[in-house]
């Protein structure tokens, strides 16, 4: 049967989408290379797993697995509102923050509109623009990160949504509070600004701009966060977005019913109460980051300074071959681009000390 049997029935802007490619799973690497020891440093996961409190909550909730979840996520939303010092009406929950990022595009943009995002930014921003038939405007990066001055200059009468990530994935770069203040003040009040803070817990820079601090002054601002990283609940797919009750209301109008499963709801509610686990995660990440950067400096490898739980290391024109060779040694990292200057980098998630050491050993053998 022809693979293009229904191609003419697919909308042209959907045909143009290149699907997001997740990191290679451990099971696939084991099957392909017949290895017992696999270190996965490809998907920015929490190497500690999840909080024991979250796991206990999950186990207790399994007795009700045959029931639909609370479609309003009442308990989690109220717990999160207290935690953030916002109201429940200002919070939307999603099946991962990806769902919410795409919902913004679906609500506020369409054919003939423009959606802005930075070069070297999270691919979901561009995909979201393509899904709704809007024109994605990719603004050239500055030092691998957002050039907020250029992004402000790129705003036109057709601009409807701007996606920003702070820290940025996949580069780990950060824009600071002074840059952010200058930028948000220039954005027209009708343009929706989405500030993706999926990695904010890991930031060490004291000049970081916390998006929640600006919600009351900028009704066009939405702040996106996740339970997948610092809270270690990646497999449960749970993200949240905070903004004015009006904007959040529009997102909830088209949010799928029961989009957040019951296990995710109870796990996240419990995880919010375990601050000690998050602090342990952050300490481990900082130590692991130091472990990798010390090695890179020692052997003369350039890297992009990161404020997240991953780091991009420059391995030159042979980065693709090195990535393949690392796989054969049981180390999974992440290529970040197929061509251009960024294709000479590999992104490495911060793991446990022994996992980082496995990567360092394998890379040293190859170099």
Write a brief caption for the model.
The protein has 367 residues and is α/β, with parallel strands linked by helices.
Please give a handful of descriptors for the protein shown.
367 residues, alpha/beta, 4-stranded antiparallel β-sheet, 13 helices, globular
What does this structure look like?
The chain is 38% helix and 15% strand. It has helices at 12-15, 26-33, 52-61, 74-84, 97-108, 123-131, 148-153, 177-186, 245-254, 262-272, 275-299, 319-328, 353-366, and strands at 39-40, 91-94, 114-118, 135-139, 159-165, 192-196, 221-226, 239-243, 303-304, 310-314, 331-332, 334-335, 345-349. It is globular and about 55 Å long.
Q: What is the count of DSSP helices, taking H or I runs of 4+ residues?
A: 13
Number of separate strands: 13
Order of helices and strands: HHEHHEHEHEHEHEEEHHHEEHEEEH
**Strand-residue fraction?**
5-15%
How confident overall, as mean pLDDT?
94
Uncertain residue segments: none
User: Which range best describes the helical content: under 10%, 10-25%, 25-40%, 40-55%, 55-70% or over 70%?
Assistant: 25-40%
Distance between the termini: 46 Å
Strand order of the largest sheet: 2-8-7-6-5-3-4
Largest sheet: 7 strands, mixed
